[in-house]
Design brief:
alpha+beta; Peroxisomal Thiolase, Chain A, domain 1; two-stranded antiparallel ribbon; about 425 residues; 15 helices; single chain; about 35% helix
């Protein structure tokens, strides 16, 4: 029989907006910064975990298998098995889901599951012509051959390519993620005004959460090697208004596009961990869980409309658990783009889409905005892709408990045309 699975505790770093050059922390640095205080407050030693799972997309060359590097730096012991998962934006949520399945099936009892990403450290990549020129120069034998090879150099060979830009472009449909959001906006008639209004609301909700101290128990202060400290998400703009955002030009589809830098998620560095445990682990270590992980779902669709992935995943969860949209007391839907979030809401209200794509009898209905991303989202605090799915799950649990709610879903779209969702209940 499937065993119950619990989320016991969690912590994250502040999400730090990428600015000029690499930020102060690598992915493993970030994982360690929030991992140390999280493990230090547990009533069991770090070596008590069965394994460590970490989501990370842009793994840097100095930190191959960052899950294992982080586990060792966290003092979890040489015998600790650890592996890294890469599912684009779904990596941090996949780590929780993998832990959930290991524990549910009786393979593990205590798992540290997380996500870490330092997008500011994304590499610059040489053009292929440049790589071939370097290879030819290295293979040339003798002075004459070296000179001949060197003379083949062209200025374009040395122009680097931004690796992150290529990584955010789908290789199958050859659209970047912003362009897929434009497609969703076009399909469901999402306006620029709606996108800017939603984005301004995200900043205002996060600013309120910071001011009210709602994130105090979630964020661990990070300290860099120069002694500077970081204790809050630094991408929030409390003075954002629809009018101010309306002044920005479209980024991907000029001049009529809906997606701008102001209504898109920010390029950010950050990490998040949660502790996932079985009932046996709760009893053994005297742990009090925050929530039970009830179910999970991954769904897929055309990468051109990858932003609609959450609609498929959440609907599948609702069908399997005899739920409707009204039964979701809180929904954390990762804000890759305002157009994408609004497109998901519009899809549930669209009779034809619900019938033909979701297999429902008609429109699923409208979702109350007061139950959606109650403390803001990635538009205001950023989207370190490997960590975001972990963060929204941790925050969902904390928000449910703070507001006295019972059941919620964390969901996100994933580059490549995938959607993921986790159903949790507070205990």
């Amino acid at each position: 029989m499937a065993r119950p699975v619990y989320l016991v505790d969690g912590a994250r770093t502040p999400f730090l907006k990428a600015r000029a050059g690499p930020g102060p922390f690598t992915p493993v640095d970030l994982a360690v910064q929030c991992g140390r205080p999280l493990l230090a407050r547990q009533p069991f030693p770090p070596a008590a975990f069965d394994q460590v799972i970490l989501g990370c997309v842009n793994v840097i060359a100095d930190e191959m298998n960052p899950a294992r590097v982080a586990a060792l730096r966290l003092g979890m012991g040489e015998a600790m098995t650890a592996f890294t998962e890469q599912v684009n934006c779904g990596s941090g949520m996949q780590s929780i889901d993998t832990a959930f399945r290991y524990i549910r099936e009786g393979v593990s009892d205590l798992v540290l599951a997380g996500g870490a990403e330092a997008l500011s450290h994304a590499p610059l990549v040489w053009p292929q012509q440049g790589v071939r020129w370097f290879a030819g120069l290295a293979m040339a034998r003798g002075l004459g051959a070296k000179i001949a090879a060197a003379l083949k150099l062209r200025p374009g060979f040395l122009k680097p390519i931004i690796g992150l830009e290529r990584g955010l472009t789908d290789p199958i449909v050859e659209l970047n993620m912003g362009q897929t959001a434009e497609v969703v906006a076009h399909l469901f008639g999402i306006t620029r005004e709606q996108c800017d209004a939603y984005a301004a609301g995200s900043h205002q909700r996060l600013a309120r959460a910071q001011g009210e101290g709602f994130l105090r128990d979630e964020i661990e202060t990070a300290f860099d090697r120069a002694g500077r400290f970081y204790d809050a998400d630094d991408g929030v703009r409390p003075d954002s208004t629809p009018d101010k955002l309306a002044r920005l030009k479209p980024v991907f589809e000029r001049p009529w596009g809906k997606v701008t830098a102001g209504n898109s998620s920010q390029i950010t560095d950050g990490a998040s961990w949660v502790i996932v445990a079985s009932e046996d682990a709760l009893k053994k270590h005297g742990l009090t869980p925050k929530a039970r992980i009830v179910d999970s779902q991954w769904s897929a669709l055309d990468p051109t409309v990858m932003g609609l992935g959450p609609v498929l995943a959440v609907t599948a969860l609702m069908k399997r658990n005899a739920m409707t949209l009204d039964d979701i007391e809180l929904l954390e839907l990762n804000e890759a783009f305002a157009a994408q979030v609004l497109g998901c809401l519009a899809a549930w209200e669209h009779d034809k889409f619900c019938r033909e794509v979701l297999g429902l009898d008609g429109a699923a209905g409208s979702f109350d905005r007061d139950r959606l991303n109650v403390d803001g989202g990635a538009i205001a605090l950023g989207h370190p892709v490997g960590a975001s799915g972990n963060r929204i799950t941790l925050h969902l649990v904390n928000a449910l408990r703070r507001l006295g709610k019972k059941r919620g879903i964390a969901t996100q779209c994933v580059g490549g045309g995938i959607g993921g969702a986790l159903l949790v209940e507070t205990v």
